Target: Calmegin
Amino acid sequence: MQFQGFWLCLNLLLFTLVKAELQDEDVEMEDFDESSEEIVTNEDKLSPEVKYKTPQPIGEAYFTETFDNGILTGWVLSKARKEDTDENIAKYDGRWEIEDLKENRVPGDRGLVLKSQAKHHAISALLSKPFIFADKPLIVQYEVNFQNGMDCGGAYIKLLTDNDYLNLENFFDKTPYTIMFGPDKCGEEHKLHFIFRYKHPKTEVFEEKHAKVPNVDLKKFFSDKKTHLYTLVMNPDNTFEVYIDQVIVNQGSLLEDVDPPINPPKEIEDPNDKKPDDWDDRIEIPDNTSVKPEDWDESQPAQIADPDAFKPEGWLDDEPEYIEDPNAEKPSDWNEDMDGKWEAPRIPNPACKIGCGQWQHPMIDNPKYRGKWEPPMIDNPNYQGEWTPRKIPNPDYYEDRNPFLLSSFSALGLELWSMTSDIYFDNFIICSDKEIADRWAEDSWMVKKLVARANEPGVFTQLLTAAEERWWLWIIYALTAGLPLILITLFCWPRKKKDEDAEYKKSDIHKPQTKGALEQEVKEEKAALENTINLEEEKENHNNGEIEKEEEDEMEEKSEEENETIEGQEEGSKSNKSGSEDEMKEADESTGSGDGPVKSVRKRRRACAD
Model:
């Protein structure tokens, strides 16, 4: 039972490790709002046979796009050229198409697909009305699927600043934007941008402010070929949240969690301040009182020829290390007028197995080398510390307590470069109510998620797929398959033999005895007792001879004393009887020991003899 429990625990542990690798929960879950909880709850109630219907916003929205009608209505392809770029790739000529998903397609659902590799793409569309930052939140949400994975490229959107000179046909990388949001990757660097352009209230120069980096692993969102939902929420209280698949992956304050910070420091270093010439910032200085030792020899070289080395036997001093290749032939098309005199290529001399050329002693470190003498360093008594410029009031200081009030925007654009094709975009929505965005996702992205989950491969296929990227899983699989056989071999067979031995010994101990066997044991014990008594009797017979002789002498003495009175004889008789009784009593008390019967017989005989 102990080994069965051990095996069960081990299997649970291995299953947990593999399951953790296969799950799509790499994002650390922090907070779910109420609406997203309802979505997860309702997910289990939906039928596997999904019937897709183009989502409709349940409230006011500034922009929505599903691409389900198959027409790029309201979208404008850029005709601009990218500046400061090679002329061959400067044009925004990347191709866009409206297509179904390549995998886990939902009938009736389509999206915008970036089709070209190594080209610039730019497309944009106007909002139904500009979004003005005031007292309402901003919610931006859309879907992305890297259908071919991602090598290098972006899938972010730009919310284009509302101004009089905004022209979507001239949309390019330097077109002013208010917010840039979405995934981006190049090499092994995976990013989720949230950047906004902030207007300096004094200089009126726009600066890019980058939100802090999400503390999650974003790699899987670029490689799993699944449709992921990206959501940005900005609140009038200057807080923000970033979601992936309705799970918070980043959140913070516009005042504290962006770089560079919104508000500059009150004081800055004086640019006109200079370090004094006599400022001593040396921590240590040479000890001028120290003297070079008299035996310090600076003339010794760092290395010397090894005096113990000798030229190896077989070293050829007169042979060159390289010779011309005797098998080489001048090419037939070699023209000495054009190519010069032909020379055979040189190869290592095969005769130089030990060595060739002038032999020299190898160099070794010189044990007498001490180098140039320098005085030791001591603490600088005049050290003044590291010099820094003095602080002065910042002439550009300001304090903005409400950076949420950004420049309004009136269009959404995709301006991208990608080395990977078939990037899928779908179901854009911009609104001011999170519940509207959640309901929009429930009717669109959640349907894709259910279809993808229903089409997921079986457990065995998932295990093989996981092992392709994680070689160490093969070790776990091998242990899982082979460990039961090892446990059976090591523990089951030896334990069975021990049980048989124990049963055999146990049967010997508790084997019942028959009546005949008991009688035989009694006879053997009785015979042993009789042998002991006979030995004692022989010893007593020897002693009794001496006793009888003494008794005859005593009888003679008694015959001489015939004149004794009858009272004296009676008293003697009583005395003998008392002694005899005492002897019998002692014999009875001695029956508790093993030699009790022998002692009692001996004492009776002595009493009779008396």
